[in-house]
């Protein structure tokens, strides 16, 4: 290898190696042994397998075909593990992971047995790999719905939590790696591996910021530095905030910070600062609390309506969002809460 090739090999392989290390970390040493961590670990593992195959194939085209087949096969699980990771974090419940993993493992194993890469290279290159990338893309699209709350915060200029930035980074990273591989015909085959290394280090950098006690990189308070609200304005906003409850403005599932500020006759900036600094929460979290309280009252008094309809009547825009938010806040499902109250 020339000096430039050695540098390229080192940099591209470094991402795969550290991907393996992070995969082990999240599986073994993560503080919370929850499914979310395991899915993240598996996502990094299959990405690393795919990347290491690309690196060695690029620098050694005579790489054993079995390793090429393993590397390509790993791609079939990248999309599902991304989807499962975002789903478990967003919905805070154990998903039915088997239906997203076992069928694909079975299919790729059967194809690999009857159509091994060493004998059917053209079929793999033309059809099987195409199907894998299409399936990967479909899961990227399906996973996008779990980013909607984050996108909504960005549109409303709300502060993003540290975990929001982390989730967004993971999603965009996987999407960019998919894009790098699908455009490699116009750039270079090693682009995917280099993209993974770059993205991985960006994500690690975010993780370092996230865990740093000194930095306020992700903290909304930094946004309002040297812009304290005077006591009189604090009282006025505190009193006006009750208007949202009295008029039940939160029943509108698309109720925004901008609409709230207009209704309360304060600036959006002041209202956001008050909710973040004084109440210690985001606007969306506050509205969610109002909706949960409304739902609790409806569950206590209304017996002739379905629980799902009561969720919509409380301002939630979907059944899953209602059930997840209610259980996270009360520790009970809506049905369990209604049953406990009626005793």
Detailed description of the structure:
This protein is mostly helical. It has two domains: 3-211, Rhopdopsin 7-helix transmembrane proteins (Up-down Bundle), CATH 1.20.1070; 222-342, Arc Repressor Mutant, subunit A (Orthogonal Bundle). It is built from 17 helices and no strands. It has helices at 3-29, 35-59, 65-74, 78-91, 98-114, 121-143, 148-155, 162-182, 191-211, 231-240, 242-246, 257-264, 268-278, 283-301, 307-313, 319-330, 334-342. Helix 14 (283-301) crosses helix 17. The longest helix has 27 residues, at 3-29. Residues 212-222 have low confidence and may be disordered.
| β-sheet strand percentage | under 5%
Average of pLDDT: 78
N-end to C-end Cα span: 77 Å
CATH class of the largest domain: Mainly Alpha
Question: Radius of gyration in whole Å, from Cα?
Answer: 24 Å
Largest sheet: none
Architecture blueprint of SSEs:
Layout: H1 3-29, H2 35-59, H3 65-74, H4 78-91, H5 98-114, H6 121-143, H7 148-155, H8 162-182, H9 191-211, H10 231-240, H11 242-246, H12 257-264, H13 268-278, H14 283-301, H15 307-313, H16 319-330, H17 334-342
Helix pairs in contact: 1-2, 1-9, 2-3, 2-4, 4-6, 4-8, 6-8, 8-9, 14-16, 14-17
